[in-house]
Amino acid sequence: MTRLRLLAITLFLATIYADSRALAQGRLSDRVNPAKIDAALLSKELAPRLVSISSAGLLSPLRTAEVYRRNGGKAIFVGSTAGLARADGLVAAIKEARSQGIDPARYRPEALDSALGAIPESPDSWWDRLSTMGRAEAQAGALVNADLVLTDRYLAMAADLKGITDKDSSAVDSLVRVTAGEAPPIEAWAPEHVQYKRLVQALAVYRQVAEAGGWPRIDGSEKLVKGNRGTRVGQLRARLDAEARLLKQFGGMSADTLYGGSVTDPLLFDAALKKRVADFQARAALENDGVAGKGTLAEMNLSAADRVRQIERTLERWRRGPRVEADRRLEVVIPGMWLDLYEEGKPVLTLKTVVGSGRESAEWKGETSVAHTPELIDEIERIEINPKWHIPEIIIRTELLAKEKKEPGFLDKGGYEWYEPGTKKFGPASELPDSIWTGKKRLFLRQRSGDANALGKMKFLFPNPYAVYLHDTPDKKYFSRTRRAFSHGCVRVQNPTVLAESLLAHTTTPPPKPLAQMLKTSTLYVAPITPHVPIHLLYRTTWVEGDGRVRFLSDLYGWDAAFDSLTAELK
Questions:
Q1: What is the per-residue pLDDT for 564?
Q2: Which of 18, 110, 316, 499 is most deeply packed, by most CB within 10 A?
Q3: Integer distance in angstroms from the first to the last C-alpha of the chain?
Q4: Complete DSSP assignment for 294-360
Q5: Would you say residue 378 lies in a domain?
Q6: Domain end position, chosen among 152, 170, 190
Q7: How many domains are contained in the chain?
């Protein structure tokens, strides 16, 4: 056999060997050695692909091409050790996307697997070098194709994790620009909030609970109270038992402290069961009276699969919602009706709040007022001590006028006065002629500072288009309730003095006087907060506490269902 024929057979067998090894995919960083890749050849292979980039295998070909245009036509992932490590991270993240409530099918993983599987390993041994003689162009072509698909999938998943949609052109441009530089690991785009990480863990637990069958339903909607006996009481007990048992089985934390206690009569609604129902209600931000009424039964009858979807939806809200990641910040959890002050990234103060009722409260000039507390991000700029309340006209026309008609002199007794904006003209409400009340002329009323003022002794201002703010209240009775949705939209704070002291302790602009001294008067004072403190009013119906217990909060405004349709439209 001649040497030429021996060499040909050797090359043929080596080709088969190399191809078989390429199909056994492992980590890309273990299969590709960037030191043995010809960067110039990669760029040469890449250039014609970008001129007439094909949509085959790519989710967003034009956006992908723009990345390479901005980085001068160099490989994003396969040209360096760091890039290969990021590629491995991306592939793993796509495979595990479901753990974050994202469908991996969005990224067409089969096309990605195909592109990666076509890459021959970099030649290391003499046998590998011999087997790949004359195949440098083919290897470069496979690497370029893989790099294109990796970049395309990176853009798609980063956009999902950051909540970027095609309608947000500036965010898309920023994503392309960052990717064209040194693209950070894919997990860097996910929300940093501790709640996101806890929700991912909770999702894994509740998926197991759902796959194990979840918990039974409770028949009917008639309320169940202490002293009742019957099959439905047994169903109620079984429903609570099943969730507690399954959470324990799959490593979750149950808030049901009475689960497992001795029960003499399973069909009797006894004191212990009332306590368990009240605890369930409290964690759902329902009125915790221990009565299993229509609303409570509806929450209990949400299945484990429904709870899985609720967690997934909350994860999506964190991804798509605005983010405040400052170490010092305020967060108001609207469905939970509480406020957290964070210092150095950790909650140091939690206060009860009263939020918008969610009801259609009035109609004025053809518009219906719905008492929602909006989702927003802003910064607290100042605190007003002994504030005046400048009253929205819709409240004047639809509420205060009715009270004045029912009880003449009500407005004067409450300290209400008319005023003329931009001037110093004002006077008691009783001075206004009847024609003002019934006419179409704009009416301006405010309530003087004092103990009766609806804003109490202070308000925390963060200018926003909704004209909402945090404030004190002279009416403290609602803070004793679990469900505290009673305001027009502003957020009432249970102990605003403690909050004000915490904020003023860090301001670089001294207040006019010590807080305690200002509160003893009825004089209006303004205390600037510098630097401003970020505040986030957020709507999240799932919240995981530090010990791992999950709170499924009732959908106060029905926004979760609307969110599902909105996100489907934006995708």
A1: 77
A2: 499
A3: 64
A4: HHHHHHHTS-HHHHHHHHHHHHHHHHHS-----SSEEEEETTTTEEEEEETTEEEEEEEEEEE--SE
A5: no
A6: 190
A7: 2
Question: For the whole model, what pTM was predicted?
Answer: 0.88
Residue ending a domain, choose from 190, 211, 233: 190
Distance in angstroms (rounded) separating the CA atoms of residues 526 and 513:
10
**Does one domain contain both 240 and 146?**
no
Residue 409 lies in a domain: no
When pLDDT is averaged across residues 554-563 and rounded to a whole number, the result is 90
CATH number at residue 249: 1.10.101.10
What are the distances in angstroms from CA 161 to CA 236, 255, 351?
Answer: 39, 30, 31
Q: Is 368 exposed, middle or buried (0-12, 13-18, 19+ CB in 10 A)?
A: exposed
**d(C-alpha 262, C-alpha 266), whole Å:** 10
Instruction: Map 60-96 to HEC letters.
Output: CHHHHHHHHHHCCCCCCCCCCHHHHHHHHHHHHHHHC
Task: Please indicate, yes or no, whether residues 39 and 146 belong to a single structural domain of this protein.
Answer: yes
Range of the domain at 286: 191-321+542-571
Do residues 412 and 428 make contact, with C-beta atoms less than 8 angstroms apart? yes
Residue 19, helix vs strand vs coil:
helix
Question: Counting Cβ atoms within 10 Å, is residue 21 exposed (0-12), middle (13-18) or buried (19+)?
Answer: middle
Residue 58, token pair as written in the block: 């790519």
Flag whether 260 is in a domain.
yes
Same domain flag for 166 and 257: no
User: What is the greatest pairwise CA distance in the chain?
Assistant: 119
More confident residue, 23 or 311: 311
405-411: which pairs have CB atoms within 8 A and are 24 or more residues apart? 411/445
> Cα separations (Å) of 542 from 108, 248, 433, 545?
30, 19, 51, 10
